[in-house]
Specification:
Number of helices: 9
CATH superfamily: Rhodopsin 7-helix transmembrane proteins
Number of strands: 6
CATH class: Mainly Alpha
Helix content: over 70%
Shape: elongated
CATH topology: Rhopdopsin 7-helix transmembrane proteins
Strand order of the largest sheet: 1-6
Mean pLDDT: 86
């Protein structure tokens, strides 16, 4: 694992973006899990899984954030300077030189601590969350159980292979980038297959939606997922574009965080909207059915009451 010197601006940019991504994941998790009680049992799994995705991501963002902080440290408000009386002296005199001037400390460049920044947490996160992301979309679509099982397995395995095949190349940022190119091409094969399945393979299921608004929202979830994922292969190419290592690392971290927020938080909230709307339709259908049953029961009761009155009158006349 090779570490690179960062400027103060570069370190703070990644620091703040990671912090924002972590807060977004945590907030979305709480919202989705609390709002899962607002949807019917049929669609509750989709909302709970959406919250699980952001929960897993929040955990890994804590690890990524801490790893980034541990990899660098800022110099203190001063340092010791050793001076020697002459070149032959082996023991010098240490004096403290402060960098605080007029009560203000000018921030310097963060220094490497020697602790490597572990970006593998991000790939471990994707390995768990990307298949779940695809499953949550399937759960709000009107497809039969056999189709669901088939799509869940193929998309889940395909996404896992996409992530696993790209990991090794992520470790190569400078020098001979051949391994990175090979991993990029291999990962893109699986990526394009998943995109095809989302936009073409599931097109019939999307078109079966009878409610136009729901059909649009499901299409938006599919397209939003694809567009956000398109960021990953682009930022993966940064080192191959001649961008220096430090700038490439910053660009990769910011790009991946932005994509994660869109694909996990944004799509998760959209899944909730779809689930809530479909739950409203289910509840409306239940109310309509129960109302019809109640009306039928009322008519039957009135008919029975009329028959009772008729028989009572006949008995009275017979007496």
């Amino acid at each position: 694992m090779v570490m690179y010197v960062m400027s103060d601006l570069q370190f703070q940019a990644v620091y703040n973006v990671l912090s924002f991504a972590l807060a977004s994941m945590m907030a979305t998790t709480m919202y989705l899990w609390f709002r899962s009680f607002a949807v019917t049992d049929k669609y509750k799994s989709a909302v709970l899984i959406s919250g699980l995705v952001t929960f897993i991501a929040a955990y890994h963002y804590i690890r990524i954030f801490n790893s980034w902080v541990d990899a660098y440290h800022y110099p203190g408000p001063g340092h010791f300077v050793t001076t020697y009386a002459d070149a032959k002296d082996t023991v010098g005199t240490q004096t403290w030189e402060t960098t605080v001037v007029g009560g203000a400390l000018e921030m310097g460049t963060p220094e490497l601590t020697g602790i490597p920044f572990n970006d593998a947490y991000r790939y471990m996160d994707w390995l768990l969350t990307v298949p779940l992301l695809l499953i949550e979309i399937l759960l709000v679509m009107d497809i039969d159980q056999a189709t669901f099982n088939d799509k869940a397995w193929t998309l889940g395995v395909g996404s896992a292979l996409m992530i696993a095949s790209g990991y090794y190349g992520e470790l190569v940022v400078t020098g001979d980038l051949t391994p990175r190119w090979m991993c990029w091409f291999l990962s893109m094969v699986f990526f394009l297959y998943i995109v095809y399945e989302l936009l073409v393979g599931l097109a019939d299921a999307t078109n079966k939606e009878t409610d136009p608004a729901l059909k649009v929202k499901i299409g938006q979830a599919q397209v939003m997922t694809v567009i956000s994922w398109c960021t990953y292969p682009v930022v993966y190419l940064f080192p191959m574009m001649g961008i220096n290592a430090a700038h490439a690392i910053v660009g990769i971290q910011i790009g991946c965080c932005a994509s994660d927020i869109i694909s996990k938080c944004g799509v998760g909230l959209l899944i909730y909207q779809i689930s809530y709307a479909k739950s409203a339709i289910v509840r409306a259908g239940i109310i309509k059915t129960k109302s019809a049953d109640l009306e039928s029961a009322s008519e039957a009761f009135q008919a029975a009451q009329a028959l009772k009155n008729k028989l009572a009158a006949e008995i009275a006349a017979a007496k």
